[in-house]
Structures are given as structure tokens and as C-alpha cells.
Amino acid sequence: MQPLYEGKAKRLYTTQEQDVLRIVYKDEATAFNGEKKEVFAGKGELNNRLTSHFFEILEQAGIPTHFIERVSEREQLVRRVTIIPLEVVVRNVVAGSLSKRLGIEEGTVLETPIVEFYYKDDTLGDPLVTSSHINLLKIATSEELKQLSDKALRVNEVLQPYFRQNGITLIDFKLEYGKMADGTILLADEISPDTCRLWDQATGEHLDKDVFRRNIGSLTETYQTLFNRLGGNTQ
Ligand code: C5P
């Protein structure tokens, strides 16, 4: 089938069905807008399994996503959407860019979750944008933005207790949404240790891509540990 798009961590192909696409997860990890790059054998398979698992949990909780099914070690079928060029970040605990931007110590627990929007544009370095910027760029209407924020918080309400039950704190995560041909907004892209910060509740150990960004551990071993902690061996 036709290659449609190649991103940093995934390739997208058409299928025989007009409304269905095939995603292939790559072994490549990138950070800092692609400046740091490395290949880790097995990463694609782990992220495909983890993303599929998280999307299944969300679907079971009544959250519509683009996910249809995982079809092989590295591949899944998804519904075709047009991606809204926003990264929707939800934060429960201060870390990463929020800590740097506002000078608040990493690990500070937020009283209520924070939602942020970043404009998906590699040449601009994905800047943080306000609702006025988003309206100015005609990316989404105020009503759609409210929907995105509500939907992202709902994902947090499902995933936060799920990770807590497994001894893991969901610090923050990034979501992407897409529009189907009829305008319906669906959760799309991926949810994986590439796109979440996950800290071990007891030890504070990082179980996510920060081990690669910060050179503090083996990415493959970390993702495998996360997979096993979430019952991966029995899936
Ligand atoms: O870097 P920052 O602190 O803003 O990241 C917040 C969350 O969004 C983290 O979980 C990070 O993994 C995720 N993120 C992402 N892709 C980006 C930027 C951030 O998945 N381009």
C-alpha cells in the first residue's frame, strides 16, 4: 500500500479501505526536535504494544480513539483522521518544560491538572500557544478547543488511576487529536513512554523517554520494565 507520511517514530500507510490506515512503529528515538537520534532494537514493538493497550483501556472507558487493532509486532490499524496541529499536554506533577518555564521544582504536585497547547511546527520548535494564538492561526475554534481540553482531562481521569494501581505516577503526557471526514474529533497518534512521563511511585525511577533525553538509563530496558509492570508478559 502507499506510504502516506513518515514521522520521527512511525510510518503511516494507506490500506485497501479508504478510511483505514496502517501505522508502523519504528525503532528510532528522537529528542529535542530531532537533534538527538538513536535506534533501539525492540522499541517499535514495545511502543506498538503499549499504545494499543492504552487505547484499548480508553475505548473500554467510552473514549473514542482512532485505534482499531494491533495487527502485528510493529503494526496497528487506525481510522483515518486529519491531525489537528496541536500537542495537547496534560500535567499532574511539575516536570520538564513547565519546571523550566516557571521555575517550579520538578516533582511539585499540582492541585488540579493543567492543560497546555503547543503548535505542532518543527521549524518553530513546537511553541506553547494560547487560545488567542490558536484562533489567530485558525487551527481550531474556541468551541473545539474547549472540547480538546475536556477530552484530554477525561483521558487523564482514566489513565491516572490505571497507572496508580500499578505503582506508577502519571506525571504528564501529550495527546494529539484528529478530525474524521464528518468533523468528529478523535484521539489519535500514540500514548507511550515516548509521550508520557511515568515515575515509579516508590523509588521515583523514570519509566519513560526521559532516560534517553537525560542519558540516565537504557531506553529499551526501561520500556521493557514498564511493559512487564503493566502485565505485559500475559498480554
Ligand atoms: O517537554 P515537556 O515538559 O513540555 O513535555 C510534557 C509531556 O509531553 C511529556 O510527557 C513529554 O514526553 C510529552 N511531549 C511529547 N512530544 C513533544 C513534547 C512533549 O510527547 N514534542
UniProtKB/TrEMBL annotation:
Pfam families: SAICAR_synt (PF01259). Keywords: ATP-binding, Ligase, Nucleotide-binding, Purine biosynthesis. GO terms for molecular function: phosphoribosylaminoimidazolesuccinocarboxamide synthase activity. Coiled coil: none annotated. It catalyses: 5-amino-1-(5-phospho-D-ribosyl)imidazole-4-carboxylate + L-aspartate + ATP = (2S)-2-[5-amino-1-(5-phospho-beta-D-ribosyl)imidazole-4-carboxamido]succinate + ADP + phosphate + 2 H(+). Transmembrane segments: none annotated. The keyword DNA-binding does not apply. It comes from the Bacteria. It is an enzyme of class 6 (ligase). Residues 4-228 form the SAICAR synthetase/ADE2 N-terminal domain. NCBIfam families: purC. HAMAP family: SAICAR_synth (MF_00137). This is Phosphoribosylaminoimidazole-succinocarboxamide synthase. It comes from Exiguobacterium indicum. The lineage of its organism: Bacteria, Bacillati, Bacillota, Bacilli, Bacillales.
